[in-house]
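Quick one, tokens below:
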């Protein structure tokens, strides 16, 4: 089982995920780094407390990023603000569930690795389908 879990992180931040707004892109990169750390900790089977800390950190960073991104959208009067806000709220719930699952599992490695795939899939999809549109809008209005 452990062997199957080894391998490269298959979805890091890449330039094609660029939104074209510097603050947002920088935060997205950091976000992927945090998710990667969590993935590594899961792979190495690191201590429950450490993984718990990383999860808390990811949760914290996610909230900060969403708040900043929402503030930016308001500042440019982005028309898709409400959809973004709803998607963000949904993800915060997913993260909360993940933390709860991790705690009730007693720090199970598979919970972390499965959860991590969920996090990376969500990030990649959300950035490429929704966040990119913020940058496109900003560019089209010259803001
Ligand atoms: Fe974002
Ligand atoms: Fe977003």
């Amino acid at each position: 089982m452990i062997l199957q879990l080894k391998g490269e992180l298959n979805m890091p931040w890449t330039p094609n995920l660029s939104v074209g707004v510097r603050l947002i892109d920088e935060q997205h990169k950091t976000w992927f780094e945090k998710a990667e750390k969590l993935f590594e900790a899961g792979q190495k089977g690191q201590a429950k407390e450490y993984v718990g800390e990383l999860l808390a950190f990811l949760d914290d960073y996610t909230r900060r990023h969403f708040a900043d991104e929402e503030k930016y959208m308001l500042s440019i009067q982005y028309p898709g603000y409400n959809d973004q806000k709803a998607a963000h709220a949904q993800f915060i719930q997913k993260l909360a569930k993940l933390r709860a699952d991790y705690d009730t599992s007693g720090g199970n490695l598979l919970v972390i690795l499965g959860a991590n795939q969920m996090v990376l899939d969500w990030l990649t999809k959300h950035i490429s389908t929704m966040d990119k549109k913020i940058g496109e809008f900003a560019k089209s209005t010259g803001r």
